[in-house]
Structure formats: C-alpha cells, structure tokens
Amino acid sequence: MNTSDLELFIRTADCGSITAAAGLLDTSPAAASAALKRLEKQLGVELFIRSTRQLRITAEGERFLLHCRQAIESLEYAKASLVEMQGEIAGEIRMSVSSDLGRNMLLPLLDDVMDSNPELSVQLSLGDSLADFYMDRVDVALRYGQPEDSSMVAFQLIDVDRIACASPEYLERHGTPQTPEELLQHNCLLYRLGDQIFNQWEFTNKGTGNSEPITKKVKVSSNRICNDGDIVRRWVVSGKGIALKSRLDMFADLKAGRVVEVMPGFRAKSTSLWLICPSRKQVTPAVLLLRDRLREKFKALLGSEQSLLP
C-alpha cells in the first residue's frame, strides 16, 4: 500500500470526483481510477459507491479516511523531525496567504528564508477567501483576525492598526477629511469577502483632557468594490479614493509617499495577524522557523514606521 494511493483516496473523498482529484495530483482519470481499485482490492472493501452521476464514499471509506489523514500527517511530521535532528530545515510548506500581504510583503521574506535553507520548498496560494486546509491541501495560512475554530493551532504574529489613507493627488483634488462624517462626501474604496461588503467603518477619537474617547460609525459608499485586497490598495495609490487598510499592507506605499494617512486624530479598530495550522501535526520545524522570521520582520517594519506617523 503506497502513500500516493492514500493521497489519491483522500483527494477523491475531498473532491467527490475521481477526475477532479486526478487533476490536482497531475495524473489521468484512468490511472486514478485504477489506483483506487487497487487500494480497494488490498483492503478488501469498497471505498466508494460509483454511479454514472455521482461518487459517494462508503461507511468503510469514511472510517478509513480518518486513519489515512492521520497516517499521511504522521509521515510528514516524522520526515520533518529527522531533518531537524540533522540540524537543517527542509521539506515543503503549502501556504495560503491573502493577496495583498502575499504579493507586497511576504515574497522577499520567503526568498530570504529559502536562500538560508536550500532544502526547503514552498507551495504558495494567494487569495483572500479563507483556506480549506483539506480541499486546498494547505499546511499553514497567514490571515488577519483570530480564527474562530478552536481546534486549529494559531500563532499570533503581531497586532496591526488599520488606517484611512489616500494618495496626495486624490486629496488635492477632493480635499482632506478631518472627521469620520466627512468620509460620506468621498469615494471610499471597498473590500468584499464572500457576500459581505465592508462599508461600515468605525473610528474612535483619541480624546482630549478629561474627555472620554467617542466611537463613531459611518456607512460609506463607493464606485469601486473588489474581493481582492491588493486591487483596493492599487486603487488607493492611483488616486481613485480613500480606503481603510492595514498599516502593514500599506507600509511600502506610506514610506514612499504614494499614500498618506488621513484623520490622524481618529483611530480605526485594529486587527492582528495570525499564522494558522489545522492541527499540531502541521507545526513542523519549517513552520516554526517561518513563524519566528515573520514575527521579527513584521515587528521591525512596524517599528521603523513610527517615524512615518503624523
């Protein structure tokens, strides 16, 4: 019983299709079907009920699937442990990252880590939708916001504030808002995740003297909405409007003067950046190295940006 047959079985169960699983594993549907039949013969049970319209996993297949996942995870963890004993970081990290952070911040850091560890390889998936660790074959995800699933292993990397920002050219043409209410007179570039459009922005003023901070919410409008955070960033830089973005995502643009922060007297609700694994078995030496390097890099960047604050 070889591991490639087990991987094929897992992917077929996840996809509900032999053809789809074969495509993901870069093999032909005919070869995939033959491999599944070979596995069923070795086990002496049917793993799937096949019909012309659908493929359905059997009760025996469901039970075997659980053990298969654990077996593959254990093998990968064992390989990583052997490498660690030799004093090297090796193996493969399958990583999901939001589009903005991945393109503009993570790539140079990954290059640095991989140059220092030539036996390490990375499969990178960019996209703002939440990763499905099994369907997408992802070991680790880098995302803003603490995960709600308590069964996952999550490492908090850094707290990040969010800022309202715009290009100097846009502000010269349309004026600079001083309060959240004034945002209603501006084109506010919006981000969409799934069916949710993030058009309600919340700010808290810093308070003066003995006065308590006051929180204000405004429902902004826009002629541009996108489900890709990097597109929203590009719209800001090109002078199309005002956006509410992570300071980390806008770091290079702030430093270069392509965008500036507006309404410095008001603070938006902050967020946090997390490195997430589906289980402890995915927490390999390579993942721990990546976690530590990310923490160092992001803290250094945000620390250096204090000089950019208004």
Automatic annotation (TrEMBL):
InterPro entries: LysR-type_TF_proteobact-type, LysR_HTH_N, LysR_subst-bd, WH-like_DNA-bd_sf, WH_DNA-bd_sf
Superkingdom of the source species: Bacteria
CDD domains: PBP2_CrgA_like
Keyword Transcription regulation tagged: yes
Keywords associated with the record: DNA-binding, Transcription, Transcription regulation
Domain HTH lysR-type positions: 1-58
Family: Belongs to the LysR transcriptional regulatory family.
PANTHER family given in the database record: HTH-TYPE TRANSCRIPTIONAL REGULATOR (PTHR30537), HTH-TYPE TRANSCRIPTIONAL REGULATOR SINR-RELATED (PTHR30537:SF21)
Protein's name in the database: LysR family transcriptional regulator
Species per Swiss-Prot/TrEMBL record: Photobacterium alginatilyticum
